[in-house]
Amino acid sequence: MVRRSPIQGRSQDKVQRILAATAALADTMPLETITMMQIADAAEASFSSIYRFFPSKDAILEAVAMANLDRLQKLYEIYFAAAKLEEGNKVIDDAIDIYVAFARNEPGFRALWVNGSPNAAISRRSRHVIDAAIQLAKAYAVERLGFAATPELEIRLAIAANATTHVLRYAFLQTDFPQEQVTDELKRWLKAALLMLR
């Protein structure tokens, strides 16, 4: 993905400028129309300096998507580490709200993940984020809510996490219903599916 890893602070700053500029462009124009020259102009970097770090536009887009997914996973890790709630309903609401807020506010995330067609590498990274979310939810359910660590809990969490990913993408892509109504229905489904097991 990255041709050369930046070591010096100035190079790291340049890579971050390239990623931020690309994410901003992804939010304002179709991905296929973005050019390396536009990325260079937006990042205030030379064409050659971009190629020093990234072999192609697709590599930059992939790096943006990967960074987005890393940040999303970190948000969930921080939330579950600090959660003191003993009420599972609120935790489910918060988990969905974290994703929705992230998708609305994180530059490039909707264009590259929600609206886009993720490549194999991005899909693998997303799978890792989902797996991490499942483990966080399992630990919370067992340690805080008193659920038994059973195979039934494992499969229920796995199905819920994967279904949630698809339904949340659907919530942003569809135009038949208000987005909030779709996410509220998802929350109700998750509570019914997850909280019945003890």
Helix content: over 70%
The name of the CATH superfamily of the largest domain reads: Tetracycline Repressor, domain 2
Q: Are there runs of 5+ residues with pLDDT below 50, and where?
A: none
Q: What is the CATH class name of the largest domain? A: Mainly Alpha
Helix/strand-derived class?
mainly alpha
Radius of gyration based on Cα positions: 19 Å
Shape: elongated
Distance between termini? 44 Å
Largest sheet: none
Query: What's the number of domains?
Result: 2
Total DSSP E strands: 0
CATH architecture of the largest domain: Orthogonal Bundle
Give the overall average pLDDT: 87
Task: Spell out the helices and strands N to C.
Answer: HHHHHHHHH
CATH topology-level name of the largest domain: Tetracycline Repressor, domain 2
Strand content: under 5%
Number of helices: 9
In short:
This protein is an all-alpha fold and 198 residues long.
Explain the overall architecture:
The protein has 198 residues and is mostly helical. It has two domains: 9-58, Orthogonal Bundle (Arc Repressor Mutant, subunit A); 65-194, Tetracycline Repressor, domain 2 (Orthogonal Bundle), CATH 1.10.357.10. The chain is 74% helix and 0% strand. It has helices at residues 9-26, 36-43, 47-53, 57-82, 88-105, 109-114, 120-143, 151-173, 179-194.
